[in-house]
Backbone:
């Protein structure tokens, strides 16, 4: 980590977001200690949306106290974004996530309409390859989004840190704190990334492939890896308290 990056150590450690594709994975991830269960189709790209019936079943299978989110996808036509958000919000999940490229972020009226379709529940997912994450945060906050995450669009083995350096990650999480947004870091993460990325104090670290059998996001979730990630975060907490 660059010595020029100064991270506020008094902030809470991140929680663990685990993306799941069905009820069985959701139950396993929740039982293993995941803090947020995120419904997503790993066969449909970086932010593939599951059928609303599947998302509803996942929500209903978990404790009412469980924190949930679901991907509403990346509509090819940005004008369809509010409709996609409203449909996924109707499943009852706590948060709705949408992928945003630079062009949609420049359409402030559309962003406000999308946020209005899920008041206080919409999270933007920005792609590391686009390189504009921190700059987008004030626009998202003004539009009414409740959070922002950075993820990788390509799933070719490159991870978040291959696209954004520590200073850039720090700028993104700091911007989210300044503007009152929840923030998350994701992007082909491995358990070994938990320590370095936790230093930036995002609210969540998002995982899929790194917690699956064979480290392949298209394979089934491995509950033992979820438990290992939970323990890795717990050990960081012990070190902070020491």
Residues:
């Amino acid at each position: 980590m660059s010595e020029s990056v100064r991270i506020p150590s008094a902030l809470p450690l991140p929680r663990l977001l685990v993306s799941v594709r069905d009820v069985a994975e959701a139950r396993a991830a929740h039982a293993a200690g995941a803090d947020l269960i995120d419904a997503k189709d790993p066969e449909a790209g970086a932010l593939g949306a599951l059928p609303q019936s599947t998302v509803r079943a996942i929500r209903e299978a978990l404790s009412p106290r469980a924190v949930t989110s679901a991907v509403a996808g990346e509509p090819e036509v940005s004008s369809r974004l509010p409709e996609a958000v409203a449909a996924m919000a109707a499943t009852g999940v706590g948060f709705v996530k949408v992928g945003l490229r630079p062009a949609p972020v420049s359409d402030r009226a559309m962003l406000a309409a999308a946020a209005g379709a899920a008041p206080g529940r919409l999270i933007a997912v920005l792609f590391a390859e686009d390189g504009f994450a921190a700059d987008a945060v004030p626009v998202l906050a003004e539009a009414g989004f409740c959070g922002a995450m950075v993820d990788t669009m390509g799933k070719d083995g490159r991870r978040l840190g291959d696209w954004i350096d520590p200073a850039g990650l720090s700028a993104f999480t700091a911007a989210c704190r300044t503007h009152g947004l929840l923030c998350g870091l994701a992007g082909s993460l491995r358990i070994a990334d938990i320590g370095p990325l936790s230093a930036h104090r995002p609210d969540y670290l998002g995982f899929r492939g790194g917690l699956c059998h064979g480290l392949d996001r298209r394979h089934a979730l491995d509950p033992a890896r979820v438990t290992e990630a939970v323990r890795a975060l717990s050990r960081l907490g012990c070190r902070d308290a020491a």
